[in-house]
């Protein structure tokens, strides 16, 4: 039987798999592992949202097929959010679609608009679905720097000048996963102006827009005048309202891209469970104290982690947004690379992190840490890491001896 599946062949080995396997093995042996690897929010979904879900789930009619584009009430609530937060007006029938999380929306849009050989521009490192959604759809990816600065803009111009065929779309993700970088509205304006001139679509992932610290609220690319001519933007309820397992997100923006997404989704799904959609509308329309509280919790956790690591002589840039810290590997361990360092940190310190190479080759030399444990657990993680770093020489020697034996 031929199992040489074309699209599967285009996917590299999942870098996180080795760390996950080690984590599972350690936990099976009874070892306490502090998991900072996956950006999986641990905060409970606010009670008024859960209550609305339970209320609507009591109605037998709510258990029927839902609407693939999203129920009217939820699309209306999302339009209200964009108007309040960004000052952007949206047509809820032609410029909004409810998705099963931003990840599903991006993947389905990639499938809808990509022809074999199309070139997509993506930052590297990047959240895997950004490039691989298009690779799965038979596109090809050219990588750009990840910092939203002049270097990015110059690389974008070179990519358009020297790439054949001309790139079809550009992916943006700020606040960034994994790097936590934040873009300014001025940066967006320059990118929109360039891409409008060269007729390149812009696909923006804004999933972390509401998790920010010590800075003004991150902007939306759709705030740029004329952006809707070429832009579509994805957001998510997962991080803002601690609803990762609920799988609710949104797409907003350009009518042509939206039409393609809505059409392909109509063949693939019937939309999220109706009580979930109603509860999501209650989240957007209801009190927003829970969002501010979650933001404060993540800020306090960030400070515990970054300040603790600094005391352990591991100096990590202070993230201004997202739930992540993008940490350069400490000097004594750099020669090991991101994957081996992550494995060593797990086995010797009991702390799981995500190797930077899981987000692309330019992630080498870094690990991503997610503040998805409480402050007590983060302090324990820092203590473990401090002990581990203080024992760097013997730890490296033992690890390399073990690798040589294997």
Briefly say what this structure is.
The chain is an alpha/beta fold and 406 residues long. The chain has helices at 6-9, 16-28, 47-57, 72-86, 102-113, 129-136, 150-162, 185-198, 237-240, 255-268, 274-285, 289-311, 337-349, 375-390, 392-405, and strands at 34-35, 96-99, 119-123, 140-144, 169-173, 201-205, 231-236, 249-253, 324-328, 351-352, 354-355, 366-370.
Output the keywords.
single chain; 406 residues; alpha/beta; Aspartate Aminotransferase, domain 1; Aspartate Aminotransferase, domain 2; seven-stranded mixed β-sheet; three-stranded antiparallel β-sheet; 15 helices; 12 strands; 13% strand
Structure description:
The longest helix is centred in the last third of the chain and has 23 residues, at 289-311. This protein has helices at residues 6-9, 16-28, 47-57, 72-86, 102-113, 129-136, 150-162, 185-198, 237-240, 255-268, 274-285, 289-311, 337-349, 375-390, 392-405; strands at 34-35, 96-99, 119-123, 140-144, 169-173, 201-205, 231-236, 249-253, 324-328, 351-352, 354-355, 366-370. α8 (185-198) links the parallel β5 and β6. With 406 residues, it is of the alpha/beta class. It is built from 15 helices and 12 strands. It starts with 5 loop residues before the first helix and ends with a helix. The protein has 2 domains: 6-44 and 290-395, Aspartate Aminotransferase, domain 1, CATH 3.90.1150; 47-285, Type I PLP-dependent aspartate aminotransferase-like (Major domain) (Aspartate Aminotransferase, domain 2, 3-Layer(aba) Sandwich), CATH 3.40.640. The strands form 3 sheets. Strands 2-8-7-6-5-3-4 form a 7-stranded mixed β-sheet, sandwiched between helices. Strands 9-12-11 form a 3-stranded antiparallel β-sheet. Strands 1-10 form a two-stranded parallel ribbon. Helices cover 46% and strands 13% of the residues. The mean pLDDT is 93. The radius of gyration is 22 Å and the shape is globular.
């Amino acid at each position: 039987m031929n199992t040489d599946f074309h699209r599967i062949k285009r996917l590299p080995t999942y870098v996180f798999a080795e760390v996950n396997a080690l984590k599972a093995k350690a936990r099976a042996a009874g070892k306490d592992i502090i998991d900072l690897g996956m950006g999986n929010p641990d905060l409970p979904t606010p009670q008024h949202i859960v209550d609305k879900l339970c209320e609507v789930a009591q109605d037998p009619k709510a258990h029927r097929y839902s609407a693939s584009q999203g129920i009217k009430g939820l699309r209306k609530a999302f339009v209200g959010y964009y108007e309040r937060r960004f000052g952007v007006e949206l047509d809820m029938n032609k410029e909004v679609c409810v998705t099963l999380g931003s990840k599903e929306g991006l993947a389905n849009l990639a499938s809808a608009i990509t022809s074999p050989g199309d070139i997509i521009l993506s930052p590297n490192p990047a959240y895997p679905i950004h490039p691989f959604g298009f690779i799965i759809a038979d596109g090809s990816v050219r990588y750009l720097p990840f910092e939203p600065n002049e270097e990015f803009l110059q690389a974008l111009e070179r990519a358009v000048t020297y790439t054949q065929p001309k790139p079809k779309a550009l992916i943006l993700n700020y606040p960034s996963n994994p790097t936590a970088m934040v873009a300014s509205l001025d940066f967006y304006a320059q990118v929109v102006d360039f891409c409008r001139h060269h007729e390149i679509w812009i696909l923006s992932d804004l999933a972390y827009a509401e998790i920010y610290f010590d800075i003004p609220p991150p902007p939306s690319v759709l705030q740029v005048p004329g952006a809707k001519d070429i832009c579509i933007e994805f957001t998510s309820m997962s991080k803002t309202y601690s609803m990762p397992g609920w799988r609710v997100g949104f797409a907003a923006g350009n009518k042509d891209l939206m039409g393609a997404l809505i059409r392909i989704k109509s063949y693939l799904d019937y939309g999220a469970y109706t009580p979930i959609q109603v509860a999501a509308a209650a989240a957007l329309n209801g009190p927003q104290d829970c969002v501010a509280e979650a933001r404060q919790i993540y800020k306090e956790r960030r400070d515990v982690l970054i300040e603790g690591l600094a005391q352990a002589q591991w100096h990590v840039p202070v993230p201004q947004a997202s739930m992540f810290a993008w940490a350069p590997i400490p000097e004594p361990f750099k020669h090991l690379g991101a994957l081996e360092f992550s494995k060593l940190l797990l086995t010797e310190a009991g702390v799981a992190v995500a190797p930077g190479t899981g987000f692309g080759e330019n992630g080498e030399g870094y690990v991503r840490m997610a503040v998805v444990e409480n402050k007590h657990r983060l302090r324990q993680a820092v203590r473990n890491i401090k002990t581990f770093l203080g024992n760097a020489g013997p730890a490296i020697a033992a690890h390399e001896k073990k690798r040589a034996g294997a």
